[in-house]
Design brief:
Blueprint lengths: L13 E3 L3 H12 L5 E3 L25 H4 L1
């Protein structure tokens, strides 16, 4: 493929897919204080038609997925 893969260590759940179910799972985890990582291979999330990069953590609820959608 011509690019080198980078190893990333993630502490917490990894959610595959940023559709409605994946985002709902991320929000539910965040509400319980559990940060997660959402992976999406398509250029958009929740089929909204535009790309959005969201970082959610329990220490900054203003950036949670629930406040962005």
């Amino acid at each position: 493929m011509g690019t080198e893969a980078e190893c990333v260590h993630v502490h917490g759940p990894i959610i595959v897919g940023a559709g409605p179910s994946g985002l709902a799972a991320a929000v539910c985890l965040l509400q319980k204080g559990i940060p997660s990582v959402v992976l999406e291979r398509a250029g958009c999330i929740a089929r909204s038609g535009k790309t959005e990069h969201t970082t959610a953590s329990s220490s900054s609820p203003s950036t949670s997925a629930s406040s962005r959608f």
